[in-house]
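The freezer alarm interrupted the setup, so I double-checked each line after restarting. Inputs confirmed:
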Amino acid sequence: MNTLFEPFAYEFFVRGLIAAGLVGGLCGLIGVYIVLRRMAYIGHGLSHAVFGGAVVSYVMAFNFYLGASLWGFLSAVLISLTTRKRVIGADAAIGIITTASFALGVALISRYRTFTRDFEAALFGNILGVSPGDLWAITAVAVFAAAVLIIGYKQFLFATFDPDVARFYGVATPWVDTVFSLVLAGTIVVSMQVLGVTLIAAAIVIPPIVARLLTDSFRTMILLSTGTGAFCGVSGIYLSYFADVSSGASVVLFSAFIFVLALTYSAVRGRLGRGRAALPGHPAPFN
Amino acid sequence: MLSSHRVPPPGTSPVIEWRNASCGYDRGPVIHEVDLSLAPGDFVALLGPSGAGKTTLLRSILGAVRIYAGDISVGGTSVKRRRPRIGYVPQLQTIDWTFPVTVEEAVMMGCTAESRWLPWYPRRIRDRVTAVLEQLGIDHLRRQHIGALSGGQQQRVFLARALVSNPNMLLLDEPTSSLDIKTRDEILHLLAALNRQGVTIVLATHEINAVAAHLPHVVCVNGGIVANGAPADVFTPETMRRTYGAEMPIVHYEGLVLVAERPHLLHARNPNGATAGGQFEYEHTV
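Predicted 3D structure, all chains:
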């Protein structure tokens, strides 16, 4: 029994557990909007773009959080502007902008080899590296994101559901998109230390899909996705202690396990048809 | 015909007015030099083939397209200066039916601008939503997911979203496409009832006989305004040729003016045996 409580004796572990819970919940919350806008690829792409910004900030001795967030925000806005031109598809715009940014980061690392080890944690996540300062940054972004999405709940909902029509009903969709890009960039930056650049996308996508399999209501989906993300974050980190694997991989693998459970539950309840239709790329038949 | 048209008193100012307006999108204008006025209480069909500019004309009222020349005003104010608040119902095919919203949540979106910074809807809005859902006969579906409804119910949901903010003008883009005959009839009569209550209605449609022929006012569109007036005045072989680029005879049947959309079939049945040279250059009465 004592073995189960053993990790809680370490301060770094408790700090990491809180960080993982906050990051998981935050990714779950943001992920609802990402998945419903059918932009799952942007989470993947933007995390790579932020990596480039993080390296540039390091090289220029600039504050990591501010530099990487600004870089991620500018990348998100650039993707949004490129996509609106309609000549270039969203997937192509994300592919070009984010991989170029990631490549810049890799180029700088290969040029200044002294900090290769630090960025291994950024790529794959390292719970040992979560400092009290990181925890404060995660808390600040989580509070900011929650406040923005609660206050602007109705506008974010309409802009996500029907962005073209929302503006006819008085929703300032360009502002909604810009604020969302800011929240998304902040989320990815503070998630890097816990989950790693390569695994953030999964933490953003899996909880909302699990929630979508279980509910048809937007409000319930928000609550379920946030809760699932936080639960997977805490559980994944806890299990990583015993399995001795990287924190990001453990969180994502546990999330995937929860997804399989939700899918099975959905199938057993006879909801598989509707659940499948709910996933991006599978439109429901027109009645 | 739907006897719903409220004849405006003489001298009434137009509620929507295009003055030599050319508008479209980034790649250039889609409709050219439009001069058109709609009166308060009008019930209008914008009719034309695919790509004719019906949706562009409809969206120009909302200030949602680029105006290259001229001006468009709603209630006397240019849409360039202020985007008007009008109930808008998009094509059902553009809706994401897998999106996790219930009927009630979807209808409430129509009031987003009224309580912008509150995460919940005030009591007065909830009451209004209930009233609109009851008016449209879908109150019992309020907790249902939008994807679980029939085509007619889905159309009513988005009609309810447009009506919940009490607009005096309603714009609908292809409101009856993909609907069966009975549901289409129900939706048209519902719109006629709203029009009788004073709501100005403008709808875009490609259905000549099923929709446009039943409305009091038709505007034929094909890159600009081809004709404008009552179906009896607008539906002529010449207008149809200029609108659709095809020969389409006109048929008078029980007081309705209809357009033969399968001219060759009608020609084969023509007891007079029209000559090859001018086979559809006549109006013919059944």
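Quick read of the result. Chain A has one domain: 2-278.
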